[in-house]
Amino acid sequence: MDYHLLFQPFALGLELGLFLVALVLWRVVRLKLELGRFKQHLSDRLELDASSAHKIKKETEALRRENEQLRIRVAGFNAMPEGRLQQDLEVFARAEKRMMVNVPGFAPAWESAKAAAQTELAEEDAGKSLPKRVFSRLFGSGGPKDALPAPSTDT
Questions:
Q1: Cβ contacts of 100 within 8 Å, gap of 6 or more
Q2: What is the mean pLDDT of the chain?
Q3: What gap in Å lies between CA 147 and CA 2, rounded to an integer?
Q4: Measured between alpha carbons, how far is 88 from 78 in angstroms, rounded to an integer?
Q5: d(CA 104, CA 116)
Q6: Taking the CA atoms of the chain, what radius of gyration do you get in angstroms?
Q7: DSSP state string for 52-72
Q8: How far separated are the first and last CA of the chain, in Å rounded?
Q9: Residue 2 — very low, low, confident or very high, per pLDDT cuts 50/70/90?
Q10: Mapping DSSP to helix (H, G, I), strand (E, B) and coil, where does residue 143 land?
């Protein structure tokens, strides 16, 4: 074999050009593979984001429906007399807390008023209070001892 042909300027240029083309082709193939991998990664990521967004949307809609149902139940509950009383009680409790914090002279007067009201209610429940006795005699409490006697049929 004649090696002197390999070292001719044209042969050296051709060898160098072929080597560079091989390097460029190798780099292009690697970049295409990497680009394919990035595209697959992006596709997977978009699918995950879409599914999580769909789940969040379903949860939000379910929570919105539940909130609406609870709002309707609360409105129905507040429409009943017991519900209104309980709501009024909650309003008074919150107002009392605010007054205790905001008004310095309110707390002692409020506590004494509450104690007097509790004592008054206890007396009314025990039947010692005048209004309770008067109303129980006039209207009765509905119990067996307060029931009116049956009218006699002796004529």
A1: 106, 107, 110
A2: 80
A3: 136
A4: 10
A5: 20
A6: 45
A7: HHHHHHHHHHHHHHHHHHHHH
A8: 154
A9: low
A10: coil
